[in-house]
Structure formats: structure tokens, C-alpha cells
Design a protein that fits this description.
Elements: H1 4-13, E1 17-19, H2 26-29, E2 43-46, H3 50-63, E3 66-70, E4 85-89, E5 96-99, E6 104-108, H4 113-121, H5 137-142, H6 150-153, E7 162-166, E8 172-173, H7 185-189, E9 193-195
Parallel strand pairs: 2-4, 3-4
Antiparallel strand pairs: 1-2, 5-6, 6-9, 7-8, 7-9
Length: about 200
């Protein structure tokens, strides 16, 4: 069982908010797209940047809490949140940078596809994605990513050029990954940024 002192030390490491049951923002922070999901995590770390993700992954590992990762919060099964767990919420890591010269886009782990579509369409670009704009970028990509452009351009994961990933033991891993075939568990789910 984690102590209040350990929670206070964890909170001091974060730029984002650490939410506990009883906090005014707790009920809203634990909601996901599927309103039938009613899970109650022990802590919700609303990460503001990669340093927060590293701190949260490290705390999750050392505290013994189960860990769930929430990107866009769209998963129908509610897998981004778990009872009595540490939820690492990436929704605050939200940015989209389009490079029209290289025909690439780099996005934060909290983005949904509507964010990406809005930014890329201004340059006449599109990423092969799913069909619902409120779907999280990370979850759809790691699940393969099937949509209207799949027949012509392949799955979303087929078009992923690189990803910054916080490994389960804490460090940031940021190689230029080409044609990622698979990623697994916490390591992949805690991806802070991705590029197509």
C-alpha cells in the first residue's frame, strides 16, 4: 500500500496534476468515451510533458500499483483506465506539428485524430487513420489503424515513421523507428509522441 508521503513525493515531481479520489476533478478525470465504463483508479497523473510520463511510469513500477495508459480516452472497452490503479493520462500532451516539405506530421500522445486531420488538411495532407475523429492517435495506431485510406495507403501503423517511447523501466527511448511491426504493453502505450 502506498503512503501519503509517497504520493506527495510523486506529486512534487509532476508539472501536471495528480488527482486522487475525493479531489474536485476526480469524477471528470476518470470518465472515458464509453459512458458505461465506471472504473475508479487510485491515482490519475495528468501528464504535461515527457518528464511527467517518465515520473509516472517510474512511480507505477516502484509503487506496485497496476498501471493504465489513457491517450485519447476513446477505447470502447475502457482499457485506458483501471480500478485501484495509476492512470497515466496523456491528454495534456497535445500538439500537432506538420512538416509540409517532408510530408510528415508529429503529434503528442494526447491527440485525437480530429486534431491531426485539422492540422494536416490545411496542407493538403492526410494520414491513413480510422473513421472517427475522437479516436486517440496512440491507441488506434498501436491497434493497427483501419480506415478509409487503408486500401490505398496501408494501415496507420504501416505509415508510422518514429515514436518516442517511455520504457517500462523509466527511460525515454527515441530512435528513428522504421516500419514498426509490434509494440507491447506499457512501453508502447506510454508513447509520448509519434510521427508519420
Amino acid at each position: 500500500m502506498i503512503t501519503q508521503e509517497e504520493i506527495a513525493q510523486f506529486r512534487a515531481q509532476l508539472r501536471g496534476e495528480l488527482i486522487e479520489p475525493g479531489s474536485p476533478s476526480y469524477e471528470n478525470a476518470r470518465k472515458v468515451y464509453n459512458g458505461m465504463i465506471d472504473k475508479k483508479p487510485r491515482l490519475i497523473a495528468k501528464c504535461a510533458d515527457v518528464a511527467d510520463v517518465i515520473a509516472a511510469v517510474t512511480f507505477g513500477r516502484t509503487s506496485g500499483l497496476k498501471v493504465s495508459i489513457r491517450g485519447g480516452g476513446h477505447n470502447a472497452g475502457g482499457l485506458g483506465i483501471a480500478d485501484d490503479a495509476l492512470t497515466i493520462d496523456l491528454s495534456g500532451i497535445k500538439y500537432v506539428h506538420v512538416d509540409p516539405t517532408a510530408n510528415t506530421v508529429r503529434v503528442g500522445g494526447g491527440c485525437v485524430w480530429g486534431d491531426v486531420d485539422h492540422a494536416t488538411h490545411a496542407f493538403g495532407l492526410a494520414v491513413p487513420t480510422g473513421i472517427i475523429s475522437s479516436t486517440g492517435v496512440g491507441g488506434l495506431t498501436l491497434g493497427g489503424g483501419l480506415g478509409h485510406l487503408t486500401r490505398k495507403l496501408g494501415l496507420t501503423i504501416d505509415n508510422l515513421l518514429s515514436a518516442d517511447v517511455v520504457l517500462a523501466d523509466g527511460p525515454l527511448w527515441s530512435p528513428a523507428l522504421r516500419r514498426i511491426a509490434t509494440c507491447s504493453g506499457l512501453c508502447a502505450a506510454a508513447a509520448a509522441t509519434s510521427a508519420w
